Amino acid sequence: MNKAIHLNLLRAEERVSSSRVRLHVMAPVFAAVVVAGVALWWAWLWTQTLMAQSQTRAADDAIGQLQAAFKRATDTTGREQELKQQLAQVELYRHGAARYGVFLRKLAEQMPATIQLTALEFVEPPPQVIAAPAPRGKKAPPSFGPSSPEEPVRLRLSGRTPDAASLDKLLGVLRAPAFRETIETATVPKGAFRQEQDARGGSGQEFFRFDVECTLKRRVFE
Amino acid sequence: MAKAKTALLKRRTPTDVVGLALGHLPEGKVAAVRMQTKGGKRELLAAAVIDLPGALPSDWESARKAVTWSLPPPFQSPNAALVAATPEAVLRLTQRQAPAADAQAQAVNGQRQAVKLAMPPDLCLEATLPEYQVLWLSRLLPEGHQPTACSIQVAQAALLNAPLASPEFERAGGTAVALIVEAQRTLLVAYQNSRPVLVREQALGNETVTQALASGLGIEPALLQSMIEEQLVDPLPLLEPVLQPLFRQIGLAVDYVAQRFESAPTCGLLFGVPAHLAPLWLTVAERTGSALTLTAPAALAGFAKPRAAAPATAEEEAALWPAIGGALAVLEEASDE
Amino acid sequence: MSQGLTGEQLLAFFGNSKRRAFAVAVGLLLVAGALWQFLVTGQQEALDQARNEAQARQSKQEAMEKLVRRQSLTEKAVQELEGQLKALEGEGYLTPLLNSYAMRCKALLDPLTEKTGFALAQFAEHSQRMLPVPKVGVPEQLQARQLITCTGTGGYRQMMEFVEALEDTYPLATLSAMRIIPTNDPQVHAVQMVVEWPAKGKTKSELLPAAKGGRR
């Protein structure tokens, strides 16, 4: 139990703190510190900005000095790229190059004796399709080459034979493994095997005229 | 808001207080004690009369003159209880509705008034001091320096707490009659369970007694002390008629308390009487049938280690009591919580 | 001066000093907020922008320096590549002679005709056929297939040897088309062959206005 009589005439709001750390002192101090902190932060940011700008200027100067050398280097690098690309394109060509010398020699060697060739024709390749058709409503992008790297090769043989067996023999030769590397198919088109009479010398001897269509290995430029 | 503020202050209720008594000593002198509560025990750390400028203002105009104090290091506790003894100060024991426990002092018609329940259910003590004096006192101890004011009390109210420091009072269970003698007056206080239930003020103090004896003996008042100490005179016959009316009041007070509370005080305590007059006071009291025990600040059993020099004169020693009472009021409030 | 007024002034003094301190604090915090809003955030943006710019420039500078440092290596690589391209001429990469691919073709094939006895009399330039674009990118100077029609006469064996000699001497030359037509002399055939050579085609910029698709 409280024994003492404490008749305090001092009101609570009149009491002051003896501590050196007081809210109404610390509040402005804290606020001032905050202001100073913000100002310092701004100053730091400002300094950093100046430094960054100075770095930019230094880099700009260096870039300016490098321009001539860089131009030469870019040109050289561009030239290097250009040459690489040109060579790569020539290599594509090399891959698509075909060799028919050996084939022609073998053909002559294995041609049946009863067959007389009247014409041999490597048919000209079809026109190139340069770009694939663009989707409807859209422009096709620029194209600098054919849409397909492949190109068909056709060989047409025309000749005379006294009998159909010789033609069969010829077809057999063309389809033999010896030519498999070059010839894919060998066919006689419909109506391309017809009987005729030899008017030369008035002998009236009958013989057969024929056409054989061969599909050779495609040339692939890739 | 006010409640929160009060709660906040209560949380910081002091355990180390310096009591400063103003107005008891000549201008420029202040009685100061430093008291501390440690482990539930009170301790008097220092007691002295300090030279401090300024005097309690007598009107609003003089209150405007700001005076600030800086106490010597032994008295730099965090909190101070300022005890003012002025003619304007009033302490009344009244019958009225008890205020709330945490009720603050109120400003009424230019007066600052604090009320506290003294004896349940309806006996209240009411202390009043002019507003300008309270404001002047509240500015004496500047913020940010130790100490700052945590309490302003009127001297009469602070003196009511003085007996609490006495071991005899404690032994009597707080039911006692105390004579607290000041220079110009004497407070007769009856306690019931440590609570004051009767307060009477008599226009008789140490100065009155000295004056009466000196004129009766035909000597200068300044010579009285040495003459009594050297036993050159016998002042008892002169003193008896002066003090007897006062001691009769003790009998009346005891009867009142016995009637009112059905338990008569058995202990009588005397405070504030100078050492050379004390034996005379006690002899007169004995002759009138009142057994009194003198209590001096330096001899207080509860204040084991006084670390500052005791006051030099009897007036100065007497002036310590309000300072002790004021500090004790604050500390007891703290220990009670 | 009245007593009440003095008291109010005294009370106001106590109240105001603290209120003033808090007002100052609030004012300072407002100043801090304003500084943050109007200076710091703006400066932060400026710093971010400046840093990004500096970083971009430095990256550019580093890239340029790297390229410049590689200049000597690149030049060496260019020389090697040019050598490779030049070497292709020996394999049948066709270059114009007196602005004519046909003339060059004739110059290249004459030794072979002499060697094999296969007589080529006429050389005519065809339009070029395009080559697919390599994966490494489209060169500014596109390469093409230059077709030259050669007309001549000779026996089958001579023709065959000529073709073999052509393919052996110029690995890049290819027989693109051929037509053997019999003549009155069964030992002699009229031969029209189209020989294909790699050669410079059009440039990319030449093709660009036309390279909108369609058939060629």
Write the layout of secondary structure elements.
The complex is a heterotrimer of chains A (222), B (337) and C (216).
Chain A: H1 23-96, H2 101-110, E1 116-123, E2 150-161, H3 164-174, E3 183-187, E4 193-197, E5 206-220
Antiparallel strand pairs in A: 1-2, 2-5, 3-5, 4-5
Chain B: H1 2-11, E1 16-22, E2 29-38, E3 41-51, H2 60-63, E4 79-84, E5 90-95, E6 106-108, E7 111-119, E8 123-130, H3 131-138, E9 148-154, H4 155-159, H5 167-171, E10 176-181, E11 186-192, E12 195-202, H6 206-217, H7 221-229, H8 236-261, E13 267-271, H9 278-287, E14 292-295, H10 314-336
Parallel strand pairs in B: 1-4, 4-9, 10-13, 13-14
Antiparallel strand pairs in B: 1-2, 2-3, 5-8, 6-7, 7-8, 10-11, 11-12
Chain C: H1 3-69, H2 71-91, H3 101-116, E1 119-125, E2 129-130, E3 141-154, H4 156-169, E4 174-182, E5 189-203, H5 204-207
Antiparallel strand pairs in C: 1-3, 2-3, 3-5, 4-5
Helix pairs in contact in C: 3-4
In short:
Chain B has helices at residues 2-11, 60-63, 131-138, 155-159, 167-171, 206-217, 221-229, 236-261, 278-287, 314-336, and strands spanning 16-22, 29-38, 41-51, 79-84, 90-95, 106-108, 111-119, 123-130, 148-154, 176-181, 186-192, 195-202, 267-271, 292-295.
Description:
The complex is a heterotrimer of chains A (222), B (337) and C (216). With 222 residues, chain A is of the alpha+beta class. Helices cover 43% and strands 20% of the residues of chain A. The N and C termini of chain A lie far apart (108 Å). The relative contact order of chain A is 0.10. Chain B is α/β, with parallel strands linked by helices. Chain B has two domains: 1-163 and 302-337, no CATH class; 167-299, ATPase, nucleotide binding domain (Nucleotidyltransferase, domain 5), CATH 3.30.420.40. Helix content of chain B is 33%, strand content 29%. The two termini of chain B are 21 Å apart. The model of chain B is unreliable at 5-11 and 301-308 (pLDDT under 50). By secondary structure, chain C is α+β, with helices and mostly antiparallel strands. Chain C has two domains: 1-69; 93-206, Alpha-Beta Plaits (2-Layer Sandwich). In chain C, 56% of the residues lie in helices and 22% in strands. Chain C contains five helices and five strands, in the order H-H-H-E-E-E-H-E-E-H. In chain C, strands 1, 2, 3, 4 and 5 form a five-stranded antiparallel beta sheet that branches. The longest helix of chain C is centred in the N-terminal third of the chain and has 67 residues, at 3-69. Chain C starts with a helix and ends in a 9-residue tail after the last helix. The interface between A and C is large, with 89 and 96 residues. Strand 1 (116-123) of chain A pairs antiparallel with strand 4 of chain C.
